[in-house]
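Q: Here's a chain of 162 amino acids. Please give me its 3D structure as C-alpha coordinates.
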Amino acid sequence: MALLHNPEFWVLVAGVIFVAVVWKPAKRAIVGSLDERAQRIRSELDEAERLRREAETLLEDYRRRQQAAQQEAAVIVAQARDEAAHLAERARRELDQTLERRRRLAEERIAQAEAKAAEEIRALAVDLAIAASRQLLAAEIDAASGARLIDAAIAELPRGLQ
Protein backbone atom coordinates (compact mmCIF):
# COMPACT_ATOMS: atom_id res chain seq x y z
CA MET A 1 0.00 0.00 0.00
CA ALA A 2 2.79 2.19 -0.47
CA LEU A 3 1.25 3.16 -3.69
CA LEU A 4 -1.42 5.20 -1.87
CA HIS A 5 1.23 7.36 -0.29
CA ASN A 6 3.07 8.04 -3.52
CA PRO A 7 2.28 11.52 -4.86
CA GLU A 8 3.00 10.46 -8.41
CA PHE A 9 0.29 7.83 -8.15
CA TRP A 10 -2.21 10.46 -7.08
CA VAL A 11 -1.13 12.76 -9.88
CA LEU A 12 -1.72 9.86 -12.29
CA VAL A 13 -5.15 9.14 -10.75
CA ALA A 14 -6.04 12.86 -10.87
CA GLY A 15 -4.86 13.01 -14.50
CA VAL A 16 -6.96 9.96 -15.42
CA ILE A 17 -10.01 11.39 -13.62
CA PHE A 18 -9.43 14.77 -15.27
CA VAL A 19 -9.12 13.16 -18.66
CA ALA A 20 -12.26 11.04 -18.01
CA VAL A 21 -14.25 14.07 -16.85
CA VAL A 22 -12.97 16.38 -19.60
CA TRP A 23 -13.03 13.74 -22.36
CA LYS A 24 -16.80 13.38 -22.58
CA PRO A 25 -17.60 17.12 -23.11
CA ALA A 26 -14.45 17.66 -25.17
CA LYS A 27 -15.36 14.64 -27.28
CA ARG A 28 -18.84 16.10 -27.84
CA ALA A 29 -17.37 19.48 -28.77
CA ILE A 30 -14.75 17.98 -31.09
CA VAL A 31 -17.21 15.52 -32.68
CA GLY A 32 -19.87 18.25 -32.92
CA SER A 33 -17.37 20.60 -34.53
CA LEU A 34 -16.27 17.89 -36.95
CA ASP A 35 -19.89 16.94 -37.69
CA GLU A 36 -20.74 20.57 -38.24
CA ARG A 37 -17.78 21.00 -40.57
CA ALA A 38 -18.67 17.77 -42.42
CA GLN A 39 -22.27 19.01 -42.77
CA ARG A 40 -21.06 22.38 -44.08
CA ILE A 41 -18.74 20.63 -46.58
CA ARG A 42 -21.61 18.29 -47.60
CA SER A 43 -23.95 21.25 -48.16
CA GLU A 44 -21.25 23.06 -50.17
CA LEU A 45 -20.75 19.91 -52.26
CA ASP A 46 -24.53 19.62 -52.77
CA GLU A 47 -24.67 23.29 -53.76
CA ALA A 48 -21.73 22.78 -56.15
CA GLU A 49 -23.46 19.72 -57.65
CA ARG A 50 -26.72 21.68 -58.03
CA LEU A 51 -24.83 24.55 -59.69
CA ARG A 52 -23.03 22.09 -61.99
CA ARG A 53 -26.36 20.51 -63.04
CA GLU A 54 -27.84 23.97 -63.57
CA ALA A 55 -24.81 25.00 -65.65
CA GLU A 56 -25.11 21.81 -67.73
CA THR A 57 -28.82 22.48 -68.25
CA LEU A 58 -28.08 26.06 -69.32
CA LEU A 59 -25.28 24.86 -71.60
CA GLU A 60 -27.58 22.29 -73.22
CA ASP A 61 -30.29 24.95 -73.59
CA TYR A 62 -27.84 27.34 -75.24
CA ARG A 63 -26.63 24.58 -77.53
CA ARG A 64 -30.22 23.83 -78.56
CA ARG A 65 -30.84 27.53 -79.14
CA GLN A 66 -27.65 27.83 -81.15
CA GLN A 67 -28.59 24.81 -83.27
CA ALA A 68 -32.12 26.19 -83.76
CA ALA A 69 -30.65 29.57 -84.73
CA GLN A 70 -28.30 27.90 -87.22
CA GLN A 71 -31.18 25.94 -88.72
CA GLU A 72 -33.29 29.09 -88.91
CA ALA A 73 -30.39 30.94 -90.52
CA ALA A 74 -30.02 28.13 -93.07
CA VAL A 75 -33.74 28.32 -93.83
CA ILE A 76 -33.54 32.10 -94.20
CA VAL A 77 -30.53 31.81 -96.52
CA ALA A 78 -32.32 29.17 -98.61
CA GLN A 79 -35.43 31.33 -98.80
CA ALA A 80 -33.32 34.34 -99.76
CA ARG A 81 -31.64 32.33 -102.52
CA ASP A 82 -35.01 31.11 -103.79
CA GLU A 83 -36.40 34.63 -103.68
CA ALA A 84 -33.33 36.00 -105.49
CA ALA A 85 -33.67 33.32 -108.18
CA HIS A 86 -37.38 34.07 -108.47
CA LEU A 87 -36.73 37.82 -108.74
CA ALA A 88 -33.99 37.26 -111.32
CA GLU A 89 -36.33 35.06 -113.38
CA ARG A 90 -39.11 37.63 -113.08
CA ALA A 91 -36.75 40.44 -114.09
CA ARG A 92 -35.57 38.36 -117.07
CA ARG A 93 -39.18 37.72 -118.16
CA GLU A 94 -40.07 41.40 -117.77
CA LEU A 95 -36.98 42.39 -119.75
CA ASP A 96 -37.90 39.91 -122.48
CA GLN A 97 -41.45 41.28 -122.55
CA THR A 98 -40.20 44.87 -122.68
CA LEU A 99 -37.77 44.04 -125.47
CA GLU A 100 -40.54 42.24 -127.38
CA ARG A 101 -42.88 45.25 -126.98
CA ARG A 102 -40.16 47.62 -128.17
CA ARG A 103 -39.38 45.34 -131.12
CA ARG A 104 -43.07 45.26 -132.09
CA LEU A 105 -43.33 49.05 -131.73
CA ALA A 106 -40.23 49.49 -133.88
CA GLU A 107 -41.65 47.10 -136.49
CA GLU A 108 -44.97 48.99 -136.43
CA ARG A 109 -43.17 52.30 -136.84
CA ILE A 110 -41.11 50.87 -139.70
CA ALA A 111 -44.29 49.52 -141.34
CA GLN A 112 -45.98 52.90 -140.90
CA ALA A 113 -42.95 54.67 -142.32
CA GLU A 114 -42.88 52.21 -145.25
CA ALA A 115 -46.63 52.72 -145.85
CA LYS A 116 -46.21 56.50 -145.65
CA ALA A 117 -43.25 56.38 -148.02
CA ALA A 118 -45.18 54.15 -150.45
CA GLU A 119 -48.17 56.52 -150.25
CA GLU A 120 -45.91 59.51 -150.86
CA ILE A 121 -44.31 57.71 -153.81
CA ARG A 122 -47.76 56.84 -155.21
CA ALA A 123 -48.92 60.45 -154.77
CA LEU A 124 -45.74 61.68 -156.43
CA ALA A 125 -46.17 59.13 -159.24
CA VAL A 126 -49.78 60.23 -159.71
CA ASP A 127 -48.73 63.87 -159.72
CA LEU A 128 -46.00 63.11 -162.26
CA ALA A 129 -48.39 61.04 -164.37
CA ILE A 130 -50.96 63.82 -164.28
CA ALA A 131 -48.33 66.41 -165.19
CA ALA A 132 -47.01 64.19 -167.96
CA SER A 133 -50.55 63.47 -169.21
CA ARG A 134 -51.33 67.16 -169.18
CA GLN A 135 -48.25 67.96 -171.16
CA LEU A 136 -48.97 65.12 -173.56
CA LEU A 137 -52.60 66.02 -173.92
CA ALA A 138 -51.82 69.69 -174.27
CA ALA A 139 -49.40 68.89 -177.02
CA GLU A 140 -51.59 66.38 -178.87
CA ILE A 141 -55.20 67.34 -178.30
CA ASP A 142 -56.90 70.22 -179.96
CA ALA A 143 -60.04 72.02 -178.65
CA ALA A 144 -62.55 69.78 -180.45
CA SER A 145 -61.06 66.52 -179.25
CA GLY A 146 -60.72 67.97 -175.73
CA ALA A 147 -64.44 68.75 -175.67
CA ARG A 148 -65.25 65.21 -176.80
CA LEU A 149 -63.05 63.74 -174.04
CA ILE A 150 -64.69 65.95 -171.42
CA ASP A 151 -68.15 64.89 -172.59
CA ALA A 152 -67.11 61.21 -172.43
CA ALA A 153 -65.67 61.65 -168.91
CA ILE A 154 -68.88 63.34 -167.77
CA ALA A 155 -70.92 60.49 -169.20
CA GLU A 156 -68.75 57.92 -167.36
CA LEU A 157 -68.94 59.82 -164.07
CA PRO A 158 -72.17 58.27 -162.74
CA ARG A 159 -70.82 54.76 -163.30
CA GLY A 160 -67.54 55.58 -161.53
CA LEU A 161 -69.31 56.95 -158.47
CA GLN A 162 -71.33 53.81 -157.87
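Q: Can you summarize the key feature?
A: Residues 46 and 138 are 134 Å apart (CA to CA).
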